[in-house]
## 1
Amino acid sequence: MTLYSAIGSAISGLNASQAGLDLVSRNIANAGTAGYTRKTQQVSNNVAGGEGIGVQTLAATRNVDTFLQAQIRTETGKSAKLDVYNAFLSRINSMFGVPDSESSVASSVTGMLGDLQAVATSPDSPAARQTFLNTAANLASQLNSMSSNLQGMRLEAEQNISTAVDTANKSLQTIADLNNQIAQRRATNVSVADLQDQRDAAVDTLSKLMDIKAVQRDDGTVAVFTGGGQLLLDKQPVNLTFDEHTSIDATSSYSIDPAKRTVGTITLRNGTTSVDLVASGAFRTGSIAGYLDMRDRVLPQAQAQLDELASQMALAMSTETKAGVTETAGLATGYSVDTTDMLSGNTINLTYTDTPAGTQHKITIVKVMDPTVLPLAATATSNPNDTVIGINFNQPMAGILADMQAALPPSVVVGNPSGNLISFVDDGAAGTTDVNAASTSVTSTGLTDTGTGLPLFVDGNGQKAYSGSLDNLPQSVGFAGRITVSKAIIADDTSLVIYNTTPKTLIGDDTRPNDLLARLTDSTRTYSATTGIGSTSTPFNGSVDSFARRIVSVQAAASQNASDDASAQSMVSDALQEKFNSETGVNIDNEMSNLIIFQNAYAANARVISTVKELFDVLLSIGR
Amino acid sequence: MQISSYAQSLQMRNSIGQIQTQLSDLQRQLTSGLKTDNYAGLGDARSLVLALTGQMQKSNSYLDTIQSTQLRIESSMNALDSMNDIGSELKTGSLSSTFKLTSGGQTDLQITAGMRLSEVVDLLNLNVADRQLFGGKDTQTTPVVTSTMMLDGDTTHAGLKTLIAQRNEADIGDGLGRLALTSATAGTVNIAEDASPSVFGFKLSNFSSTLSGTTVSDPATIPASIDVAFSATLPSEGQSVSFDLKLPDGTTTTVKLTATTKSPAGAGEFTIGADATVTAANFQAALGSSLQTEAKQSLVAASTVEAGNNFFTNPPMRVDGPPYDTATSLIAGTPDNTVIWYRGDSSGTPGNNFIATVGDGAQIAYGARADQGALATVVKNAALLAAVSYTGTDSANETRAYAELTKRTASALNHNDGSQTLESVMTDMGLKAQTLDTAQSKLQTQISTSKSVLADTTNADPYDVATKLSSLMTQLQASYQITSSLSQLSLVKFL
């Protein structure tokens, strides 16, 4: 117990107060810094040889609820994904325009039907015909531009994934660097609180991008795993790569087979092993998951809806149904159809009944030229009540007949009366079947003498006939981006009326426009369930304008849901974040009161020193 | 629990930001008058809005169609109404007209008919909004040729007058109406058509006789003929024989010869001679003279009417000649040599050739064509009356020929044969106009209902918006005040 020890204690107290003041100043300075956590000065009684010798200043620490932190990361990950949904879907929604303005694609379709009706009312009016062609061309270009917007958004998603992957790699690197520093500093008992703040920020950034789990190690480092358990970082970060594709169109799609994949994927490389993280389903939350969903699911579906609309409009106008002619061979009766004009994707529609059971079978035989697409799925036609048979027509007639016969029961006999005629007859004397009807659905390519339909819409600048071919890549994929009004019809608008050359149809004849109108407004038309509208067993039925309206309403509902989900989710994550900020952030009032405490402590310790000095002075003056 | 200053100010900022977002949305609502500017914002009402907007667009197209169709039907009805008046005028005229030539060898009625014909042609060539109403689907060609062209033709194209003249020549032949009178054996007279098959002249259809001792028989030869064989038993005074002769237009006339002892015999009589041979010679002479008269009277009128029938078919049929007086058949006139009076669409059944869609699944077939029965009848009969002219030198025959002609035109215009009348065409159109009116008012009601529902759904209620706006403004003011008070509430201020 000496004055010296008192002075030592007082100096340690001064030091502690200074350290405390320093911390208060830093806390106050960072009161408005996002992610800054409040640091507290840790002190302990310094004991030497069983005696207290003052106060020991320890490393500053922070007080963080790690459970809350993990929860926030999960929720912000979800929020980031939903924000991506919301941003993209609201853009799709805005493509449909203002409800009041008749600018949506549905209004354009209805408008085109109205103009077609005007042509039916006055087929002889060039103004009516040109107005209709103009509206049809505008509708086609509206579909083109919506389609290219959708593909543009997919490309944007692709680019955003690329940026996100770069950011993720940087974050992983930052975490790894900070892990090292923290481990070293902890070993020398220096404060690591600020470094932890920085590392948390990096982990937060990463959790907004993807679904991760951060695990604290004993040495103060963290290890990072994907939600699915793939190791992203332990001592060294793995490398994530993304083979960004610079051009994306409607035909680009993701596939787990790298040979078929035409968009980028995220690969995890660790030494010599590499894993396709998209295929392994590593991305469940976070903005990358949102972008992947947009690129591979949501936007392609929106595209499929536009494609189906374009496809149905084109087919409705251009498809002619040609009834078969009666065919008899001995006791066997049936029908024969002419396959000469059939394009790939066109169909033969056959109906037969089992007798006496009376069960009716509807068979749709689809012409394909590429045998690799066979066999066709039952969903190749939108009709749920038919049996779909794909037949390769790219072979001699004998082969075609054999393929058909193999797909049909032996009691329905396939034959080739002559040329390109194909006959279907029942089994005659045995009497176990009756062939009820056979017809072909053929896409007309000419403007006259092929019936009252008209191939108004054609595929692309090459003016290719649109027949819904399934070869290689289905013709319907991306058709909305390629649909255009036939140049031949624009060059001669009277082809909207004149369907026969001998005798030449009169210009006042309303037969063709009325027929086209009837086809487009036919309410029994069915639409493919791959669009997400209707189901395979009960497909959506209705006129093309009602389908267009359904698209608008489905997309608007998706956008509204996404916006609702995003705001609900952001409320959850914001609330958690707020709670975390409140608990770990700086309260200036608190700091000010600490300031007073440290100020007082400093003053008191200084007082002790000055008292000791006085005592020494007294002590020294004794000897004088 | 402590609350960090940062979190506190962040919270404040967020809530003020939210109020400001709401404020700007309300301002937008107030200025645009719409609750939302996108379909997503409509919520559950979006299907309704889409359906109603679509329905309104469709209804407007239907209304456009109805308007055009109404204009066409009403214009057609006006034209048909005028035509009907002309038809009635000509019918009454035909019934009352007497043979009194005024100028150019025509009666007043005929001159009127000429003028009415050109009026009718004008009516049928009615063009409404660049569209011929009476040409069927050929809406761009003037459907009917001018009345001058129709009647007179030009150097290369034969008109109605030429066809009538040729037909008259073919029907009358050498004067006996293509019949031949011979006496192969003494006491017997044979009446025979001059050729078979032949469409011209009188056709022997029936006979009856009260002549005693005389055999009147049909020997079933080809061409058809009738034998009148007198015998030693001569007919007595007052006994008669009549021959029913079919005329080219399908009507029948009867030539009756009565035996008389007077010599010379009057018209329609023959003198009973001393024996069969003399009586037969008298009979033959009397019959020849009766036939010649009949040919100049009823045959020429019927021939004219039939020439008209031939001309007003498609293609027009004309006498296969020259020579015409010995011709036996008709030949189709070609556009190169004959006037084709109707140049419009002649496919299918005339009338109701257009289809107007006036509602979901509601269609109306409408339209009339110049070559449609009731319309063509008026043109034909006006043209017939106008085409014929008389010399005025053969008053007795021409008076009767004129009477026969007007009798036929009156009958045709009266639709005695039960053919379609203009009134029935107009009634049909009237009913369609009625249907259109009903459809129109239905659509208009529908549109106004849809509009009000749409307005309720999409329009922002200004009162509602203003109320919300003012309450938000109060809230924001309060927030600002609290924020400013709170900012004062810091320990810093009190140290």
## 2
Amino acid sequence: MAEMMKGNEAIAEAAVRAGARFYAGYPITPSSEIMEYLSWRMNEVGGAFVQAESELAGINMVIGASSCGVRALTASSGPGISLKQEGISTLCDEGLPAVVITQVRYGNGLGTLFTSQCDYNRETRGGGQGDYRCIVLCPSSIQEFVDLMLPAYELAEKYRIVTVMMGEGTLGQMMEPVELPDFVEVKRTPWALNGHYTYKKIGIFERDSMAEAVELRAKYAEIKENEQRWQEESIADADYVFVAYGVPGRATLGAVRELRAAGEKVGLIRPITAWPYPDKAFANINPNVKGIITVEENATGQMIDDAALAIKKTHKDRNIPAYALTYVYNTPPINRIKEDYFKVKSGEIKEVY
Amino acid sequence: MANTRERKVPALVDKPMDFCPGCGHGIVSRLIMECLEELEQLDNIIFPIGVGCSSNLGAGLECDRLHCCHGRAGAVATGMKRVNPDTLIVSYQGDGDAYNIGIAETFNAAYRGENITVIVINNTNFGMTGGQMSLTTMEGQKTATSVYGRDCSVTGYPIRFPEMVAREFPNAAYAARGTVTTPANINKLKGYIKNALQAQLNHEGYSVVEVLSPCPINWGLTPVNAMKRIEDELIPYYPIGEFKKREEAK
Amino acid sequence: MKVEIKRERCKECGLCIYHCPKKAISKSDSLNANGYYPVQIDDALCIGCGVCYTTCPDGVFHVLG
């Protein structure tokens, strides 16, 4: 039975049901409610909760718990995720799974409190040092966020990688009807530290980076091949295909349906994984498509790069233009998206690529 | 001859390590292993290890260990202990790692009273990176970043962490400082380490043992003279002793 | 023999020589593989007290019981 729940609370409960038994983090708008909820809920299910002294300490506590085989979680927003970058790079280096939730807010530096998608580049490329990737899931509703919590952990453990749940302020703060999943059985990972030296690590100075590079490339290639997720609608005969994720993905779906009803041949690809980017979806696009249009809540257009690459890779014989509609922050209203679509169609808005 | 006690280095550290000649790390790591052996905890131990000369221990040791981000062992140890409350978690860091870049994590683990043991090897500089000034560098001490001698009026005075723990943090169970300059001091230090580990085993709270340790290479002294420096210059400022004793021991 | 020596571990730090109460320890004159002159013990002077074991940072000594 679906109940109205606030996003951050539903997400926190979903994490617990997905087996998370350790949380460490720091308050930051608009994600604090996740931590507030877990501050009493974790103990109820026999897990451990620490309000860490900083975001930096939080991710390092997650490293400690994950190294001991426990499903660990931290949640933050842009500035806090910036502080966690070294820790995320370390998790990837050690092959330790973890889930990091970010409810993105707009701006550089301290930024604003407006909901946004301005961290796409950082989350998909990784803001930490080195040659690593995280799996990035980008749900567009509270229900989808909740439904992706268990896959987030399962993917993290299958590939020994960090899964970033890239949400946004709106998803954390809004209320929607949600059905919560069942509890899963809690188990430690087989490579956990347990005091008995069951899992033998090599020392840091004995690492063979050349050999590890081969494994890393193979791992990422496997993820790219097998873990792309997306939603698509009416792209096989579309003249223009929108590409949008998260809450703008929903707004754009609304715009697509209204435009179709008015006779415009448009479609939508809504990425659910931002990394690996759902290139395969673009292969299904009408070979005669006239252009793709990203709809993004940021200033400079970030996903446009991945979308342009995808359409040009899958439709190599033509040079299909890629447009970006960038709304800086807040969910673009359907009417704005429709207006800007006609400006793309008329040539008033020029392509980016 | 018949009544000499056998003294054999515990297997876990009985191997070549990359510490400099005369460095104190080798003595301290042996003492920790001797204590674990005597407490029968060799198969119940995880070491979160700091960055710096401590990293050499991480390279050699064959037991559960994690090389932490620089300064963050206090946070990593917290995560480990919260999910494994009955496993011994012993963090092993230098003064650079624990008191400089890691001061927030070190402080907060003590403040919260995490049931961990923290060993800090204090050699009054950042050893591994070539002898830069640290929060524990003495006034007037020449280092790579205080070439004319440390000016404390600009850079602050050396920090005394175990005393602060004993004074400020009710959740701390045990805080001590030892050194490795003489056989007597080494034996005393072993007692402090054992107390700290026992405090953790009995779930009494947070324990910390700081060790004044020589750094012959960066101090520009022979190993014997480096030990003399500790006795003559460091101990007067950094006293040896137990600043907070375990409740039962009182 | 009261004390076994692992020659390959010795790094010539000199701490054992300084602390030995019987002055039984001295530097040998043959190099080990790392280029150090490892210590040697005059067994006649040695009393098996274990001070060398205690002060050695490199696990050179095994005092036999």
